[in-house]
Amino acid sequence: MERNEIVRKIIANRRPRDEFARFVVTCVSQQLKETHGDVGVEIVEAERGYDSVWSINGREVVVLLETEELKRAKEQPYAIDDKLWHSFRQEGIVK
With 70 as the cut, is the pLDDT of residue 2 above it? Predict the structure, then answer.
C-alpha cells in the first residue's frame, strides 16, 4: 500500500478517535480482501480502547486498539496499521 503521511495526519487530527480507528480498520480490511478474500471485521468498544475483531478465512483475531495509541496517531498516523499487520504476521495470516 502506498502511504501518504500528510493526508493521514490530517485525517487523524480531524476525526474523533473512534472514527479514526474505524477508518484505519476499513483501509486494512480492504487490503486484506485483495489477497485473502473472505475478511470481516467489527469494532467493539473496550475498557482501554477498541477491540478490532477480525474474521479472516474462518480464523478469528482480536487486536486491541488502545486509546493511547489512537492519541499518538496524530504524530504517528500509521502506527495502528503497523500494529494490525504485525498481529496478522504473528498469527500466521500474512507473511
Answer: no
